Amino acid sequence: MTKPYYLMPDDENYISKTDLKKEVKELQEFARQLVALGKSQRAKLTASDELKDAFRLADKICNKPDALRRHFQFMAKLLKDEQLDTLRAEYQSIKSPVQKSDKFIKKVEDLRDNLIQEGDSAINNLIETHPNAERQKLRQLVRQAKKELDKEKPGKSFKELFQYIKTLLIS
Q: Whole-angstrom Cα distance, residue 103 to residue 167?
């Protein structure tokens, strides 16, 4: 990330001073975001011991703005040595678990609707991808859910099928 001092602008590995400053500023902002997380949320991050110590110190000096500013500069320096991709991914999953669960629920609903519409061929595909699924129970739930839909009152089996598929995908 840092460049040797002897590189000139015409070298292929040259990084301008402005780009370096932007990168450091982004790292400082990311450090602020990480410090803003709760302690229990930060415990879930895969960070080095040194960075975890920096989190604890940031909690202590949170009411001293100049010290905190300098500390964010130090944390940016530490973040350069961390695996930023994994830290950012973990941060995103902590900040937006709703999006992740919404996508999962949508996937389960689509699979349920597909099972009801296509019948045995979709059941066979599901069993191929998830061999621990019980074919008989799955067929029974699909058949009952289809009957309920024909009567235009999605009820118990429709919900049971959703829960069964959900447990299959989680395990």
A: 15
| Angle formed at CA 161 by CA 159 and CA 165, multiple of 5 degrees | 120
pTM higher than 0.90, yes or no?
no
Q: Tokens 């941060």 appear where? A: 91
Tell me the chain's radius of gyration from C-alpha atoms: 26
Q: Which amino acid is at 7?
A: L
Residue bearing tokens 């024909």:
150
Name the one residue in this structure whose structure tokens are 């299959």: 168
Q: Is 142 exposed, middle or buried (0-12, 13-18, 19+ CB in 10 A)?
A: buried
Q: Which of 118, 142, 119, 122 is nearest to 130 (CA)?
A: 122
pLDDT in tens, 8-55: 666 777 788 888 899 999 999 999 999 988 888 888 888 889 999 999
